[in-house]
Design goal:
Helices cover 28% and strands 26% of the residues. The protein is α/β, with parallel strands linked by helices. The chain folds into two domains: 232 residues, Chloramphenicol Acetyltransferase (2-Layer Sandwich), CATH 3.30.559; 193 residues, UDP N-Acetylglucosamine Acyltransferase, domain 1 (3 Solenoid). Strands 2, 5, 6, 7, 8, 9 and 10 form a seven-stranded mixed β-sheet that branches. A seven-stranded mixed β-sheet has the order 12-15-18-23-26-28-29, with no helix packed on it. The protein starts with a strand and ends with a helix.
Length: 438
C-alpha cells in the first residue's frame, strides 16, 4: 500500500467547506463532459495498444495529479491524502452479461502499467463475482465503461444515510463521430466534501490535454514505423507480441535470444555460489527478477527464461530445482512456499505442426495468490490462476484455475476439498490429539 499524509486542518483552505459537507449537507458532485478521443484511437491503432487499458492509464495519471481526488479518512477520522491511487476497473463477461471488479498497481511508466493491466485483464477475464482479483488496496478509485450508449448524465453511488466515500467514480460511455472529432461522454462523481466544480473542471481539462498530446506521440511512432497515423500496426517486435499474448517467434528472434542468454548467465552465476554467500545470492536475484518483497529465498539451482516477468511477494520461499518460463508475467503473492522440483510454465506451442515447427510460441500469465503451499514436483501450466490459502498436492499438473481455500491434487489437478477450521486441529501426521490418545 502506498504512503499518505494527514491534511493540516488548521491551514487547509477548504476546511470550512469540508466541515459543512460532512456535517450538514452530505452531497456529491456529478458532472459529465464530452471528451475527444480521436487521438487516443489513432495512437492505439498505430502502436497496437488496446483502447480501454490505455484510457485507464491516462485517467489514472490525471486523477493522481489532483490531490482532492486522492483524499480519504483514516481509522481515527482524520482527513488524509494518498501519495497515489490505483485504478479499480470493471471487466464485462459477455456470456452472462455480468461484470467483475479488478485492480492493477499504477506506474507512471506507460509500458510498465500497460503490460501489468493487460496481464491482469487476461488473468481474471473469466473469473466471475464482484471481486475478481483479491487484495484490493485501500488507495483506489473506480473507473468503468458503458460502451453501449452515449449518455449525457450518469449516477452510480448511494450513501445509504452514511457519509459519502471520497474516492472518485469515473464512467465512460460510447464514443461517436462528431464532425472532425470522435467524442465520448465521461462522467465524474466525487464527494463535495473534498472537491467541487473547480476540481471537476481541472479533471476534464487535464484529461483532454493528455489526449491531445497523443497526436505528437502517434506521429513520432508513424515516422519510426513508416505507417500512417491510424493505420493498424502489423510490424510489432517479437517481444511486443510475446508480452501481448500473441504468437511470436521464440526460437529465432535475436533480441529475445539475447535476453534469455543474459538471464541464464545470471542463473548460472547464482547456482555456482556457495550456500553461505547469501548477500551475493540476493544481489543476483535483485538484478534478475522484476519485483520482490523484502524477505524471499530461492534455493539453488534455479532457472528462468527472462527474469523481469517474475514478481515475488513477501516471505516467498522455494526449494531446489524451481524452473520458471516467464515469457509472460508470473506473480506470486505473500507467504508462498514452493517445494522441490516445481515448474511454472507460461510458454506454450501451437497444436498444428506447421506453426510449431516455425518456432512460434504463445505465453499466458500465471498468478499464485497469498498463503499458498505448492507440493513437490508440481507443474503449473500457462494461464493458470491459483487463489489464496491453497494447498497443491505433490506431483500435480495444474491446467485450470484453483479457487481460494482449497486442497487440490492430481493430474489434471482438481479440488478435493475445502480448507476448514478443522484443519487447525490436525497435526502434521494427519491425526488429531484425540485420535492419538485413543
Amino acid at each position: 500500500m502506498t504512503s499518505y499524509q494527514k491534511i493540516d486542518m488548521e491551514t487547509w483552505a477548504r476546511r470550512e467547506h469540508y466541515q459543512y459537507y460532512t456535517e450538514k449537507l452530505k452531497v456529491e458532485c456529478n458532472m459529465t463532459a464530452l471528451i475527444d478521443v480521436k487521438n487516443l484511437l489513432d495512437f492505439c491503432h498505430s502502436c497496437g495498444y488496446k483502447f480501454y487499458a490505455s484510457l485507464i492509464y491516462l485517467v489514472t495519471k490525471v486523477v493522481n495529479r489532483i490531490e482532492n481526488f486522492r483524499m480519504f479518512r483514516d481509522a481515527d477520522g482524520h482527513l488524509c491524502v494518498w501519495e497515489q491511487v490505483v485504478p479499480n476497473y470493471t471487466i464485462f463477461h459477455e456470456d452472462d452479461k455480468t461484470f467483475s471488479d479488478c485492480w492493477t498497481d499504477y506506474s507512471s511508466d506507460f509500458d510498465t502499467f500497460y503490460r501489468d493491466i493487460i496481464t491482469d485483464m487476461q488473468t481474471y477475464k473469466d473469473k466471475k463475482g464482484i471481486k475478481a482479483k483479491a487484495g484490493q488496496p485501500a488507495n483506489f478509485y473506480c473507473i468503468s465503461g458503458v460502451p453501449w450508449t452515449s449518455f449525457t448524465a450518469f449516477g452510480s453511488r448511494t450513501t445509504n444515510g452514511s457519509d459519502p466515500a471520497f474516492f472518485p467514480i469515473i464512467t465512460m460511455g460510447k464514443y461517436e463521430k462528431n464532425g472532425d472529432k470522435i467524442t465520448m461522454p465521461v462522467n465524474l462523481l466525487i464527494a463535495h466534501a473534498v472537491a467541487d466544480g473547480y476540481h471537476a473542471g481541472l479533471f476534464f481539462q487535464y484529461l483532454q490535454e493528455e489526449l491531445d498530446g497523443l497526436q505528437e506521440a502517434a506521429e513520432k511512432q508513424s515516422e519510426m514505423t513508416g505507417m500512417q497515423v491510424g493505420e493498424e500496426k502489423t510490424n510489432m517486435t517479437e517481444k511486443e507480441k510475446m508480452l501481448n499474448q500473441m504468437l511470436y517467434d521464440a526460437n529465432y528472434d535475436g533480441a529475445l535470444k539475447a535476453e534469455r542468454i543474459h538471464a541464464k548467465e545470471l542463473c548460472h552465476q547464482y547456482n555456482q555460489l556457495h550456500p553461505a554467500q547469501e548477500e551475493e545470492q540476493r544481489e543476483i536475484l535483485l538484478q534478475l527478477l522484476g519485483k520482490t518483497g523484502e524477505n524471499f529465498c530461492i534455493t539453488a539451482p534455479f532457472w528462468c527464461d527472462y527474469g523481469y516477468n517474475i514478481v515475488l511477494g513477501e516471505n516467498f520461499y522455494s526449494n531446489h530445482n524451481m524452473v520458471i518460463l516467464d515469457c509472460a508475467k508470473v506473480t506470486f503473492g505473500d507467504n508462498v512456499f514452493v517445494a522441490p522440483n516445481c515448474g511454472f510454465y507460461t510458454a506454450g506451442h501451437p497444436i498444428d505442426l506447421e506453426r510449431r515447427n516455425q518456432g512460434l510460441e504463445y505465453a499466458y500469465p500465471i498468478t499464485v495468490g497469498n498463503n499458498v503451499w505448492i507440493g513437490a514436483g508440481v507443474q503449473v501450466m500457462p494461464g493458470v490462476t491459483i487463489g489464496d490459502n491453497v494447498v497443491i498436492g505433490g506431483g500435480s499438473v495444474v491446467v485450470k484455475d484453483i479457487p481460494s481455500d482449497s486442497v487440490a491434487v492430481g493430474n489434471p489437478c482438481k479440488v478435493v476439498r475445502k480448507i476448514t477450521e478443522a484443519d487447525r486441529k490436525t497435526c502434521w501426521d494427519r491425526k488429531t490429539k484425540d485420535e492419538k490418545r485413543s
